Amino acid sequence: MPLALCASSHSPLIGLHDPAADIADEVHAQLAGARAFVEEFDPELVLVFAPDHYNGFLYELMPSFCVGAAATSVGDYGLPKGPLPVDRDAAYALARHALESGVDVALSEAMQVDHGFVQPLLFLFGSVEKLPPLVPVFINCVAEPLGPASRARLLGEAAGRALAESGKRVLIVGSGGLSHDPPVPRMESATPEVAERITHGRNPTAEQRRVRESRTVAAAGEFASGSTDFHDLNPEFDAFVLDAFESGDTTAFDERSTDWFVEEGGHSAHEIRTWIAAYGALSTQGDYEMTRRYYRPIKEWFAGFAVTTALPKATALPKATALPKATALPKATAQPKELAAQ
Length: 342
Ligand SMILES: O=C(O)CCC(=O)/C=C/C=C(\O)C(=O)O
Ligand SMILES: [Fe+2]
Hints:
CATH architecture: 3-Layer(aba) Sandwich
Helix content: 25-40%
Protein name: 2,3-dihydroxyphenylpropionate/2,3-dihydroxicinnamic acid 1,2-dioxygenase
Pathway: Aromatic compound metabolism; 3-phenylpropanoate degradation
Strand order of the largest sheet: 6-3-8-2-9-1-11-10
Domain Extradiol ring-cleavage dioxygenase class III enzyme subunit B: 7-305
Cofactor: Fe(2+)
Order of helices and strands: EHEEEEHEEHEHEHHHHHEE
CATH class: Alpha Beta
Bound molecules: ligand LMH73ZQ5, fe (ii) ion
Strand content: 15-25%
Largest sheet: 8 strands, mixed
Distance between the termini: 28 Å
Organism: Rhodococcus artemisiae
Radius of gyration: 18 Å
Number of helices: 9
């Protein structure tokens, strides 16, 4: 079965709180390169592993993993709002296979997703209208307690095996990471108001969303100006993570505790679980080759920002080189606000 992978960081601050233009251009050129890779592969199905940030999954009922048989973007941080094109049969097949493999995924017929899913898809496909059929798979990366990271690998491997049966060209997307610690609330330290929001606060008003999002932008400003109230980015840790994926060692995190991720990379480093699942899925088809590896710590985006692509070794193309800046994509905030009817 033809498979290809793109794993990338996301940041809701892209386009809202940018670093110097040459740095932002460099990242957009890398994302444009990943998009060219995807265009050449021409996927018939896209498997997306992504987290949520208390928009679609709240403490009212928090699964470790959830497969979406239907999904809607909540439209946070200026991204498009509305239904996404989900391949329902493929989603059920994946859920069945995962459950039979002993991975207890939840299933949703009405999954709400946020920038964690939508932003990388827009970078890779340009607009919601151009998205191929998707299978969105949520991985809890923020709401403690979290299970061991090895479970994300097992989930990814089950998904990879399930999609092997589809016979389609499948793009695997991992969205998140690497070291970063933006102000995503934690139940342990939440005020009663925040605890209520992360338990029952689905579908905030436009004004509530604006207040939340402007707080994130303000916090990024403080972090970039040198505030030490946040866990710093950790390029050495991020290099270790990227080396593991590049070497094909998808089990590298099996013995690492959840505390290790936080100590090394901050709370949102748990988003690396989406990469573990994505590379785990790819690894089911044999050895792979990382064909693109880009990394830069960017405080304005609260992110150790990375973009990678990979192919099974049998189909690997020559390594990608950086594309000229002129090929950079429009920024995420330039996307239309409402989606066309699906
Ligand atoms: O409620 C909010 O908006 C909290 C802030 C938030 O969700 C930040 C998210 C940041 C990322 O997704 C990231 O850097 O990975
Ligand atoms: Fe995130």
